[in-house]
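From the methods appendix. Each design record in this collection lists the tokenized structure first, followed by the designed amino acid sequence. Records were kept in a plain field format so they could be parsed without special tools. The example shown here is representative of the layout used throughout.

RECORD:
FOLD TOKENS (504 positions):
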């Protein structure tokens, strides 16, 4: 903010004090200069620094309602913070209001029903700790410190994606505060259109205060494979891995990573600083069966080192945490790949060798399995047919190298474009003008639902879907008893294999 030109939100609060928000608000309100403000304002991606005018640390859905009404009534910019890990830095904003759900991280597990209720500010570490007490798991992500909210709303790719689908595929319902300040439930039987939209449409439709997930029996120990090969033999390693993936059971889920061995334990001295192609994999079945199934991945060449072992599921879930400290500089890109043929492998290896930062990686995620068997129309998450996801992770420390690291990621994506369907994974997307969906059908339906639930685009500081403005009366809306708006039946062309998300 330029000195002497306070924002609308800043002015409002300067003129009226925080009492403009406080009626009924039971959480914590933080302004610049308050104790704890700087910590609360910081997000995971250190390359993005913003100063909100107010952070509303909510404790309840009613606190969220008060915050949303304040933002809507006063037309102040509003950002929503779950775990604060989105690479685009959308969990914060300059001069506006941050609705911060960090303290709303309660987890309630119903082991008999295998259902898990999680607050909108929970992390996967919260969920995994609570569910593993009952030997259950909800499909989450690969790093335990990420928020469940952003990850689930954008899809959610974790080790269980091939056996149990995406995080959003395991949603049973959400409690959500929409732009009109109402608390709604969205599920298969209530506000089905909204339920469709939040499963892949990101934070565009409101603030989710509670997620209810289906959980699955898991662990406590699973087979974990983590083997590092020298980049010099990367060609045969990646081809061998590709063959493995093509014949793998759904229980086996893997990722290939091209990077540089860190100068630290547990890596042997002789391997440190070497460029590698690593294969990480989890088998979510019985441990011995898993070890047998993953064994071929450990013999794709002579490894630099092999960290494979049976491991507690919660440890697997946090195995990569240390690679992503808060405050580092991050710029990630991604592409859903239609093929990983020999030509694509060559480009991947070249890109890996050209990384300007030893902290950066080129990753290829094995997709398929359960996530690909959900009909593309069943949820707002598209791209279920792509067999691979390319992740270009630019990770570095020094600001003076911003340009070369960002350019490398952008160029890398451009060079892989011809192997892709052109779509990126919204959760790995640093540019907010890239919306959640590449598919036109989803884009239109999402835009129409956005107009329905957030016509003023209150929730726009995200990978935004602009409210539909195409025709004067493009969609027939019918009001439900709870006054939510629903797209008329003809809007749904879904042939939902799962039967879980048919529109009303
Ligand atoms: C280290 C790291 C590892 C990752 N690993 C994976 C992975 O394995 N698999 C995967 O799929 N993704 C992964 N991601 C990407 C991750 O899914 C996104 O960064 C996601 O946005 C993080 O969610 P968050 O709640 O922490 O984000 P935030 O930055 O808090 O939020 C991101 C956006 O989500 C929306 N949002 C957040 N909370 C709410 C809410 N309660 N209600 C409504 N909208 C909300 C808002 O629009 C917000 O701008 C990883 C990211 C990081 C940084």
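DESIGN:
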């Amino acid at each position: 903010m330029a000195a002497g030109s306070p924002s609308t939100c800043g002015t409002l609060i300067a003129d009226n004090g925080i009492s403009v928000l406080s009626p009924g608000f039971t959480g914590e309100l933080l302004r610049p200069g308050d104790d704890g403000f700087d910590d609360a304002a910081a997000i995971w991606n250190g390359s993005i620094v913003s100063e909100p005018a107010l952070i509303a640390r909510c404790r309840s859905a009613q606190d969220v309602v008060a915050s949303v009404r304040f933002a809507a009534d006063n037309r102040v910019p509003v950002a929503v913070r779950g775990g604060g890990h989105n690479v685009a830095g959308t969990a914060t904003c300059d001069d506006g209001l941050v609705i911060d759900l960090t303290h709303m991280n309660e987890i309630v597990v119903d082991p008999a029903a295998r259902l898990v209720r999680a607050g909108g500010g929970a992390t996967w570490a919260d969920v995994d700790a609570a569910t593993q007490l009952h030997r259950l798991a909800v499909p989450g992500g690969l790093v335990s410190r990420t928020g469940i909210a952003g990850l689930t709303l954008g899809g959610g790719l974790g080790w269980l994606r091939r056996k149990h689908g995406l995080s959003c595929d395991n949603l049973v319902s959400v409690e959500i505060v929409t732009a009109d300040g109402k608390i709604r439930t969205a599920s298969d039987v209530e506000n089905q259109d909204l339920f469709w939209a939040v499963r892949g449409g990101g934070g565009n439709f409101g603030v989710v205060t509670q997620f209810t997930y289906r959980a699955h029996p898991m662990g406590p120990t699973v087979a974990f494979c983590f083997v590092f090969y020298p980049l010099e033999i990367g060609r045969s390693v990646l081809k061998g891995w590709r063959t493995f993936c093509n014949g793998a059971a759904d229980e086996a889920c893997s990722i290939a990573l091209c990077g540089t061995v860190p100068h630290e334990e547990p890596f042997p001295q002789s391997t440190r600083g070497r460029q590698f192609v690593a294969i990480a994999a989890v088998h979510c079945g019985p441990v011995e069966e898993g070890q047998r199934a993953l064994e071929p991945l450990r013999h794709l060449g002579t490894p630099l080192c092999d960290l494979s072992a049976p491991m507690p599921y919660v440890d697997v879930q946090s195995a990569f945490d240390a690679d992503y400290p808060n405050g580092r500089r991050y710029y990630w890109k991604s592409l859903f790949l239609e093929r990983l043929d020999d030509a694509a492998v060559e480009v991947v290896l070249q890109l890996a060798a050209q990384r300007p930062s030893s902290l950066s990686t080129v990753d290829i995620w094995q997709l398929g399995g359960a996530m690909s068997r959900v009909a593309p129309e069943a949820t707002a998450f598209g791209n279920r047919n792509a067999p691979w996801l390319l992740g270009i992770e630019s990770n570095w420390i020094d600001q003076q190298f911003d340009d070369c690291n960002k350019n490398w990621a952008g160029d890398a994506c451009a060079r892989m474009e011809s192997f892709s369907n052109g779509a990126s994974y919204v959760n790995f997307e640093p540019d907010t003008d890239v919306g959640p969906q590449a598919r036109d059908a989803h884009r239109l339906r999402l835009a129409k639902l956005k107009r329905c639930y957030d016509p003023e685009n209150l929730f726009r500081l995200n990978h935004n879907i602009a409210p539909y403005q195409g025709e004067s009366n493009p969609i027939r809306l019918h009001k439900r008893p709870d006054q939510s708006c629903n797209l008329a039946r003809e809007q749904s062309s879904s042939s939902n294999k799962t039967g879980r998300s048919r529109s009303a």
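APPENDIX NOTE: Confidence is low (pLDDT under 50) at residues 1-7, 472-484, 486-504.
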